[in-house]
Amino acid sequence: MKGTGLKVLATAALSLTLLAGCGSNSESDKTDNKPSDTGTSTDTAQTQTADGPSWKIDTSPFTFSQYFYGNWASNYLWKDQYAMKLATEKTGVKIDRKLATGNDEDYLNTMIASGDLPDTIMLDWNNPAVTKLINNGMVYSMDELMDKYAPELKKMLDPDMVKYHSIDGKLWYLPNNYETADRLTSGIPITPIRPWFIRSDIYKAIGSPKIESTDDLMTALKAAKEKFPDVNPVGVEFFDVAKNGFQGSLSMDFLIDSFSPKLLEEQVIDDQQILQYPMRNKGFIEAFRYMSELSRNGLFDPQLLIYKQEQYQEKLYGAQYAVASNFMNNIYADFNPKIESTIGADKKYEVIGGLKANGQDPRYPASRLMGWQGFFITKAAKNPERIIRWAEYAWSDEGQMDFRYGKEGETYDLVDGIPTFKPEVRDMMLKDNGGWYAKYGFQASTLMWRSGKLWDSAAARDFQADQPEQFAAAKLLEKYNYDKYSLGMDNLEPDGSSPEGVINAKVKDLWNKTIPKLILSKNDADFDSIYNDFVTQMDQVGAEKVEKVMYQRHLADLEKKGVK
Amino acid sequence: MSSVPAKRSSLGRKFWTQRYLMLLTLPAVLWIIVFNYIPMYGIIIAFQDYTPFHGVIHSPWIGLDNFRELFNDPTFRESLSNTLVISIVKLVFGFPAPIFLALMLNELMFKRFKRIVQSLSYLPYFVSWVLVVGLMYTLLDPETGVVSKMLVHLHVIGSDTMLMGSEKSFLTLVVFTEIWKSIGWNSIIYLAAIAGVDPQLYEAATVDGANRFRRVWHITLPALKPTIIILLILSVGGLINSNFDQLYLMQNSMTQDAANVLSVYSYKTGLVSGRFSYATAIGLFQSVVAFVLMYAANYSSRKITKESLF
Amino acid sequence: MIASKSWAGRSFDWINVLLLLCLAIVTLYPFYNIVITSFNDPTDAARGGITFWPRQLSIENYKMVFRDDNIIHAFGVTVARTLIGTATAVLFTGAFAYGVSKPELLGRRFFLMLAIVTMYFSGGIIPYYLVVAKYLHLKGHFLVYIIPNLFSVFNAILMLTFFRGLPKEMEESAKIDGANDLRIFFQLVLPVSKPVLATIALYNAVAHWNAWYDAMLFGNENLQTLQQILMQIISSNSNVSIIASSLGFGSVTAQSLKLATMVITTLPIVFVYPFVQKYFVQGVMIGSVKG
């Protein structure tokens, strides 16, 4: 029984990705992408005071352990890479970084429950376990340690960040990848949705028509089906409401944001003090009706409704869809290169611009990252003093440059005041990325990404140079972005163990079942009756209670962000 | 008055004569206590409103509230009946399958062929469910799947049937893949039991003119009987459990209701929604039912066949 | 088996052969397909249609798996735990099974009940973890693979069933000759129980070979097992492909890597079976008892 129990948890957990709430796409995109380039510029000046940095006080050899939440991150392990050696040379510190095998959630929860913690933890700041760590008194507050040992670090931190991330008036972790408001307008363009792409050869064969509206897309797909009867017209990512949120498939955002460009604003109904489920929104449902029309025209393979991620991915590697959707960086950094090397460059995918629906432009709710992972110092740490001082190093401009570029003159030069890798380093990065990681370990040592003008402009420049196609695609879609930060739509769903959380889970279950029925409906009347049934059932299980809670959480989010 | 010490000393004497037998048995008993019984305090969170923050010791007690909610929870009732239906069908078809395989293998004349088949039949046991389910998607694809095409050709299904997305075919697929995966592996224990049969018995039976089916009926099957009965008793206890990996992976938005069995439900409430107490209550319910079923099976077996587990 | 000469008997033989042949194909083919697909160029394989042999032979998947230099060490750890773990578990569980197979054993039903209850009730992973790591201090020690796996109720029951079926006369005569229970168990019972011991050993070996969860919870760098490393490689489903690219294995996909890891972990243990099989030769037990 015990054996099976273990296996059950473990195996199941493998296929379980983190529950992505309805407003957290940019976060999950980021996790997929391994945040390597976050180009943001801040104006926070980072200067050392006359006292000198605290980390220079003691540079004797010292090792601390660290658990990194993310079992995929084998690149981040400390061996004797260049960047790691550089950090150790300066500070004397080495990190014994550990990863979980299998499911991180299990590993983390077992550690917490047994009180068996490493010195430090890197954990997504919005993971539920964060509350446990803090409430159980298992971690130091950063304020406490900074006040005592590293006052300089405290001065370096962005006050907005401190406000947003403080819990009960204290900062408990240092968030990496916290981006400032400028993120949306400068640096690398954000693509907050999974765009849809069309296979180049098919697009040419049907005469490269303009695809600017949902109707254009339908016409193009019909043409594609006629010319290429063997190719599946449309490919979208797997459907699973529990994992992906109410849009069902992450690819649906592209349509939803066309059919319902003001979805987020419309969900908030202040006079009733509720925040509606998106399923009550007309435009949101129209996006599903559009899918149903695709299906009725034979343009949508119903298998996609039951595929898991693997099945869809495999077909996409084989370029088996005329129009397909995926995370932008995956298409340009993974699928296209693979397709080019095995099937042919002409079968690569190119992006479709934003689609108008009913004459309206789409709007993509973009948001800067509020941070990816928090750096926690646990009470099990043998020497928190050294660790917080080391964090000061990591956070400093010097630490950031060491972490990203290494030593000036040795691995990089300043060109027009912007860091640029030496040709041999850059060559290796582009040609033998694996070897490059193993040798240099840049972007893998301290993992304390923070915004800074110097490296952010370098990242933007390099992205444009290295990934011209993706850069152009992102630019094309960027004009539809708007900042959703001040709408207060983050972390809306109630906690799963609360009574409203239970209702919410039921609503999700119902909606999950309803999506395939809607898409496979035979005609509009059929569609409407399925939809009305769903709304009735949703009300029966008590959806309104959740909508009230979501409204309160919405207010709390606004409050936390200091809006209003 | 005098009988008590006498009894005790006779007990002591009995223990002393069994000291070597005890030496063999007691280490495992100690092991069981340490590794199974000490951790069992974890069960009490089923009677608590457990939060990891308060821990097992400080979480508030709520008595049987979880169980009350459980029995009023329509999803729970649905998953209970799904579990039982799937398990019973699996038992009816899946339990005899490896016995037949063992018997068939035993009747093979070509020793080399026998060995090869035996080795091949247990290969699927090593293929993880993730890969099996992936393979099912490929083979049952309405457009490209070989098996799907064959079934369409034989008019078993319509040409646009999505087998993986149909509640009707769900049970069949679950049972079929389960048998496919485990038949060879499960037949091993029966082959081991058959290996214990004295060949002279067969020779004698042949001399008496018994044909093959009589030999199987009168010699091989009786030799397998204890093993069959013990495994059957254990399987009856297992009726309340289902293969989590298989069903969780075969679940999708169109088979969501059919695949909702207790273990999947408990996983979703526990790990996904963080309702640890409720999930533990589901688990405890399963344990109690399983134990009672097993006990009942053991009792009836003792009455009917004289064979039993304990 | 004595071949029957009758027509019915012969046709039965052929039907039997035919059915088993079908079974062999049905069980072998998917496995075979996984093997050849894992040796095909991964991205090419994603196009589908690989049926009998690889279309573009490639060992990219395997290169990616074996790039990890810890894998040889992990292989050693796994072999060690499989060999030691299997031998100790068979003896430990067997000893218990033999004890409770004796009707005269004091507390026999109680012991058996104690064991059987644990098949159905468990306290969950966290209390278990605390016992192993905090109270027994087994964390980070090789013995953590051995001791918590010494006993299995299910295996005990299978052996118990077998021991019960042994002829009583053999042991009785040994007792009269003055042998104690220890000697009888080791010198008489174990040798005649080869088929069941082989089976249980196989069960244990496979379980040890496939185990990785305990390695994750209780192991450390020096105790990494093969399965653990492979799980690590494939567990990050959606990122595998990007990581593969970043490591210079451009064409590896999540799916192809899964296939290759399955082949790597399965093949060694699959080859154990023929060794076990030889103990299934008919009559091993009774023959030796009488002889």
Describe this structure in words.
Chain A has helices at residues 2-15, 25-33, 82-91, 104-114, 129-135, 142-149, 151-156, 159-165, 200-205, 214-227, 241-244, 252-259, 263-267, 282-296, 309-317, 328-342, 384-395, 397-404, 423-431, 433-440, 453-466, 468-478, 499-519, 524-540, 543-561; strands at 62-68, 93-98, 120-124, 174-175, 196-199, 232-235, 268-269, 274-275, 321-325, 349-351, 364-366, 373-377, 412-415, 418-421, 481-483. With 564 residues, chain A is of the alpha/beta class. Chain A folds into 2 domains: 52-185 and 370-451, D-Maltodextrin-Binding Protein, domain 2 (3-Layer(aba) Sandwich); 196-366 and 487-561, Periplasmic binding protein-like II (D-Maltodextrin-Binding Protein, domain 2). In chain A, a hairpin with a 2-residue loop joins strand 13 and strand 14 (418-421). Chain B has 310 residues and is an all-alpha fold. Chain B has a single domain (75-304), classed as MetI-like (MetI-like fold), CATH 1.10.3720.10. Chain B is built from 15 helices and no strands. Chain B has helices at residues 3-17, 19-37, 55-58, 65-71, 74-94, 96-107, 111-121, 129-139, 146-153, 167-194, 199-207, 212-237, 244-250, 262-272, 276-304. The two termini of chain B are 34 Å apart. By secondary structure, chain C is mostly helical. Chain C is built from 17 helices and no strands. Mean pLDDT of chain C is 83; it is low at 283-291.
